[in-house]
């Protein structure tokens, strides 16, 4: 496995050099040691480190938190903050940048190693999850079946192109709307409204659908499509409900 690349940002020369020595002893590749936020941003762009050890308190116009925020917005590089005692306001600013960990000065080599191993593991898991998410999104977008997802409040969170075509709603316009507004369902014979299968799933926690019978989907522009559909709960990595996915398709009369 390639050595993880680490950038050290600390304006205390003795401390920074000690961290460099510890990292090398632990088998990490130190791509740079800098003392200011501006230098940190520059080297993060040049070397693309896997992780940055960032002191919160830095001299100059850009402290460690501002530097971390800039680096994350440009390059997405994760950060472990190095800090002595800080006031609550500073810590709240730091939390907003979602650091992978904090190391309280002074720390020993075992603390540094544990923080790095955990942070790099979390980063690898996050990247794998992002890759899977992009793959799944590509699959959904290319499906011929229409797909709509909603959150636990029944608000639309995604439509694929097939769903946009059948509902008449562009995704940007539909996001946050109640699913009953985006997917208006009627009984074919009587024209009576049909409860949304998504809402049934949210209430009962079990898969639902239109029972295999076709119903009318009235699009935003008033066109009617005969469809059949199914709906199932979306669960997060812990198995907790996080929304509903509806899959539907047009059927012949």
Automatic annotation (TrEMBL):
One of its GO terms (cellular component) is cytosol. Residues 132-205 form the PAS domain. One of its GO terms (molecular function) is phosphorelay response regulator activity. The keyword Ion transport does not apply. The keyword Membrane does not apply. CDD domains: PAS, REC_DC-like. Keywords: DNA-binding, Phosphoprotein. Gene3D superfamilies: 3.40.50.2300, PAS domain. InterPro entries: CheY-like_superfamily (IPR011006), PAS (IPR000014), PAS-like_dom_sf (IPR035965), PAS_fold (IPR013767), Sig_transdc_resp-reg_receiver (IPR001789), WalR-like (IPR039420). Pfam families: PAS, Response_reg. It comes from Nitrospira defluvii. GO terms for biological process: regulation of DNA-templated transcription. This is Putative Response regulator.
